[in-house]
Amino acid sequence: MPPSETNGSEHGTDADTDPLTIDYPSHPRVERLLATLRDALEEISLGFDRWEEPRVYGPGMYLAIVAGPSLEAFADPMGANVWPDGGRDPLEEPGAFLEAATETAYTCDGAVVISVDGIVSQQLVRFRMDAIESDLEYEPWMGARHMSALDVSTRPDVIATLTLSEETGRVTVFEDGAYDSVEREAVGGPWRVTEA
Fold it and tell me: How large is the C-alpha radius of gyration of the chain?
């Protein structure tokens, strides 16, 4: 399997047909948010060095960028799994965000929801699949977190979902039923510092 793989299509641009529609997937601030979140997941992946050990799980994370004021129609609170104090604005406080995201990746379960304005919701959630009708194909490497992220990415009010695999360190971005996945060995791309 190649280190990075892409599948599917890109979001359509409603802005081409309706000048009053905000095309969040191509909005510069949302694009910057998505890149910042992906970079954070890659840094968390690179910060764990025991991926090759048997029966060892690393940090895992599920992020969702959502447009809209409420998730009540398709998500439930994930119990006591909450975002730590601080670090809720990845664009304005990337260091504090990375610290809180790292803690969350090691200690919490559920999806972290980030609004399109870039603010992290304190409550982690479990997305319900009852309203999703999709004929998406799952890859053999996809676990429950990845399958959920792929499905949830097709919701109209979800801009993108991202995952960090706790089993392999793979980082994946899902948008509108498509994905771009980078295996741990390729995380960081040309900026990755490797030991010689």
Answer: 16
